[in-house]
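Quick one: structure tokens for this chain, please?
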Amino acid sequence: MLVVCTGTATEVGKTFVGAAVLRDLRARGCTVAARKPAQSYDPADDHPLDAVVLADATGEATDDVCPPARTYALAMAPPMAAAALGRPVPSLQDLLDETVWPDPPVDVCWLETVGGPRSPIAADADAVDVVAAVGPDRVVLVADAGLGTVNAVLLSIAPFRALGHEPTVVLNRCDPGDDLHRRNAAWLRARGVRVLLGPGELADALHPGV
């Protein structure tokens, strides 16, 4: 199963959700792999890189998750960071050619993009273009659970629906006891959105055979 993960924006917890889901699936006996075709970061930030977090969750080498040549020490979208650093700016085809999955195939392949649906990941592509190119089995959209959630989710799922994909929305940092969080989930579900409350529910949904 190929899963493409994006978010409603940056800093909504895509990597946190992905790592939690992949650890959960591994604990249940599933084989998993993660790929982040390009990543950028603030060198002053002491948090681990996304590829490091995902590699720790899957048991893979960090360089297998994201090639060092596509890691940019500048807090901009990867193609912008590459240009600002004077490095080659990848095309979508470059990134797809460099995305090599394990052989033999694993149960769940997790491909994480950057930022939101229209955040650039390559000179000519964003997350919507990635989904159009790879045709995943599932599109996962990670969102916050609080104020602004409904607007962000409805805007973010629209371009994927236009491609014929119905995203699975995961509300990260969701507190079942919070009235706003519950109402946001109910509002979206009433409008036909597939909403899950956190990584555990997503792991259940992605487990082989479900």
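The CA atoms of residues 8 and 153 lie 6 Å apart.
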